[in-house]
Amino acid sequence: MRYQITGKQIDIGEALQTHVQTELGTTIEKYPGRPTDATVIFSKSAHEYACEVVVHLSTGLNVSAKAKAVEIYAAFDACCEKIDKQLRRYKRRLKDHHKERTEPIEIMEAVSYVLAREEDSKEYEEPDSLQPIIVAEMETRIPSLSVGEAVMQMELAGAPVLVFRNEKKDGVNVVYRRDDGNIGWIDP
């Protein structure tokens, strides 16, 4: 597994890097999914250290966690506990569904855009054109999943919405977390 351990405006020492690799490695080894790479980012704001961990699994799932603590090691350990909990839930759901994916998830490439938001002032004038201003253009990946797997991936990533290609219908679908706490599914 490849590790990318970085700090935002702080130095990351060899001892911390070794601790991250051993602890994260032992946490992830307990579960199926063959991790391909992990990204760990440390930052500091005021007196707290923040740690953000993202682990990419070969099945296409991404597991992520964020934690803050007064000490940098404690912040990472809290992230590790969250990753462990997410992977334990993922493993339980795989067992409950009696389903094992034998092949990796098929990924479709797409383009995503970041649009400029409209100004929130009282003196806002109507624009000449209804075309939005594109701030950024990025490439994104759309996985081919079942609806259950899409909900599982959305929950593991802690994302409010997930766009995926439905395996059964071969069309683009969306699952999202509703305001009432339930999951919504858009199947055009």
TrEMBL record:
**Record's family?**
Belongs to the HPF/YfiA ribosome-associated protein family. Long HPF subfamily.
State the name under which the record lists this protein: Ribosome hibernation promoting factor
Q: Which GO terms describe its biological process?
A: negative regulation of translational elongation
Entry annotated with the keyword Signal? no
Keyword line: Cytoplasm, Translation regulation
Subcellular location per the Swiss-Prot or TrEMBL entry = Cytoplasm
Task: Name a GO CC annotation attached to this entry.
Answer: cytosolic small ribosomal subunit
The residue ranges of the Sigma 54 modulation/S30EA ribosomal protein C-terminal domain are 131-184
Primary site of residence? cytoplasm
Q: What does this protein do?
A: Required for dimerization of active 70S ribosomes into 100S ribosomes in stationary phase; 100S ribosomes are translationally inactive and sometimes present during exponential growth.
Known partners and oligomeric status? Associates exclusively with 100S ribosomes, which are dimers of 70S ribosomes. Interacts with 100S ribosomes.
> Which Pfam family name is an example for this entry?
Ribosom_S30AE_C
**Which is one GO molecular function term here?**
ribosomal small subunit binding
Regions crossing the membrane: none
The protein's matches in CDD domains, at most eight in alphabetical order, are given as: RaiA (cd00552)
